[in-house]
């Protein structure tokens, strides 16, 4: 499933540069994650890098966007094909 940044976000700017897919951007009030680009770092890292660096632990699985490991891998492959 894609990840979600909750309103506990303190806009510390550490998550955005860690995302290998460019899925994180500054929203109106807090950072946001574009679900179509979020693969939870599948294909790049063992764990989601934004979650690893977040000092307030405000990045959680998005309950409205459940995806299997296979779906995340498929999304990763599609994103990589687009970037070629």
Automatic annotation (TrEMBL):
<dbReference type="Pfam" id="PF00037">
    <property type="entry name" value="Fer4"/>
</dbReference>
<feature type="domain" description="4Fe-4S ferredoxin-type">
    <location>
        <begin position="1"/>
        <end position="29"/>
    </location>
</feature>
<dbReference type="GO" id="GO:0046872">
    <property type="term" value="F:metal ion binding"/>
</dbReference>
<dbReference type="InterPro" id="IPR047927">
    <property type="entry name" value="YfhL-like"/>
</dbReference>
<dbReference type="InterPro" id="IPR017896">
    <property type="entry name" value="4Fe4S_Fe-S-bd"/>
</dbReference>
<dbReference type="GO" id="GO:0051539">
    <property type="term" value="F:4 iron, 4 sulfur cluster binding"/>
</dbReference>
<keyword id="KW-0411">Iron-sulfur</keyword>
<keyword id="KW-0408">Iron</keyword>
<keyword id="KW-0249">Electron transport</keyword>
<dbReference type="InterPro" id="IPR017900">
    <property type="entry name" value="4Fe4S_Fe_S_CS"/>
</dbReference>
<keyword id="KW-0004">4Fe-4S</keyword>
<protein>
    <submittedName>
        <fullName>4Fe-4S ferredoxin iron-sulfur binding domain protein</fullName>
    </submittedName>
</protein>
<dbReference type="InterPro" id="IPR050157">
    <property type="entry name" value="PSI_iron-sulfur_center"/>
</dbReference>
<keyword id="KW-0479">Metal-binding</keyword>
<keyword id="KW-0813">Transport</keyword>
<dbReference type="GO" id="GO:0005737">
    <property type="term" value="C:cytoplasm"/>
</dbReference>
